From TrEMBL:
It is a multi-pass membrane protein. It is found in: Cell inner membrane. NCBIfam families: MotA1. This is Flagellar motor stator protein MotA. Its main location: membrane. It comes from the Bacteria. One of its GO terms (biological process) is proton transmembrane transport. GO terms for cellular component: plasma membrane. The lineage of its organism: Bacteria, Pseudomonadati, Pseudomonadota, Betaproteobacteria, Burkholderiales. InterPro entries: Flag_MotA_CS, Flagellar_motor_stator_MotA, MotA-like, MotA_ExbB_proton_chnl, MotA_N. Pfam families: MotA_ExbB, MotA_N.
Length: 286
């Protein structure tokens, strides 16, 4: 919703201000300029990116129209799940969760938290490291190093769409200049026309520069920033799992281990200690 509102504000401010100053909006409608700018940008997009980058970008763009799914309730469900798993380990031993981590979709522990279970990336991350803990062949330092490497890979992979869109936005002003130059060339070859008509051709040519800059900074550039924000937001769930499991490996009780995980969350979504405690108590009664 904010994306659409932002675009409306951009258009209203630019075109509304131009109209109020006495400008004629009709002159700004130049489909051929848009064809040159858009076509060149799409062509450069194909040239500068491989199939994986393009597919990742196409998959990421629809998510920009959706609100954030990373709410306080989701984080509390995640930490409650971690608490349940670590409590079971503390009471019955690491081998007791083997069935839960092998088939999480059939596990009574995971099934209590469908909002977490539907995120297969976080479930896979969690179960993979719980499986390593069950194996007993790695210490906390080795697991932490492996987690850091995986999170770095996740971050680089998730940053691809933002980089692709940012590069696209960076090129649009230049493509706008290309369109403007083409318009000037057309004007120069028509130099024998009356001054009024030449002025109109020059105005149409300058629209290319205007459109390239407006599209870059008013439409495409902000998308790259929004994708980066969504990536940073998604990484917090992984960091929460990482810190919680490492705290457990270092000998902390489940309640304290979950508290470690709570502390890494952003303040806007981080539940208070009392809120998390109440949520865990309610989940136990399910």
């Amino acid at each position: 919703m904010l994306l659409i509102i932002g675009y409306i504000v951009v258009c209203a401010s630019v075109f509304g201000g131009y109209a109020m100053s006495g400008g004629h909006l009709a002159i700004l409608f130049q489909p051929l300029e848009l064809v040159m700018i858009g076509g060149a940008a799409v062509g450069a997009l194909f040239v500068g990116n491989n199939n994986k980058s393009l597919k990742a970008t196409m998959a990421a763009l629809p998510t920009l129209l959706k609100g954030s799914r990373y709410t306080k309730e989701l984080y509390m469900d995640l930490m409650s799940l971690l608490f349940d798993i670590l409590s079971k380990v503390r009471k019955e031993g690491l081998m007791s969760i083997e069935g839960d981590i092998e088939t999480p979709e059939q596990s009574p522990l995971f099934s209590k938290y469908p909002s977490v279970l539907e995120d297969h990336h976080i479930v896979e991350f969690m179960t993979d490291y719980l499986r390593l803990m069950v194996s007993g062949n790695m210490d906390a330092f080795q697991i932490e190093n492996l987690m850091d490497n995986e999170l770095e890979t996740h971050h680089h992979e998730g940053a691809v769409p933002a980089h692709v869109i940012a590069k696209l936005g960076d090129g649009l002003p230049a493509f706008g200049i290309v369109a403007a130059v083409m318009g000037v060339v057309h004007t120069m070859e028509s130099v024998g026309m009356p001054p009024a008509e030449l002025g109109l051709l020059i105005a149409k040519a300058l629209v290319g520069t205007f459109l390239g800059i407006l599209l870059a900074y008013g439409f495409v550039g902000p998308l790259a920033s929004l994708l980066e924000q969504k990536l940073e937001e998604s990484s917090k769930m992984f960091q929460c799992v990482k810190v919680t499991l490492l705290a457990s490996l270092n000998g902390y009780a489940p309640a304290l281990a979950v508290e470690f995980g709570r502390k890494v969350l952003y303040s806007t979504e981080r539940p208070t200690f009392a809120e998390l405690e109440d949520h865990i108590k309610k989940s136990k009664s399910k």
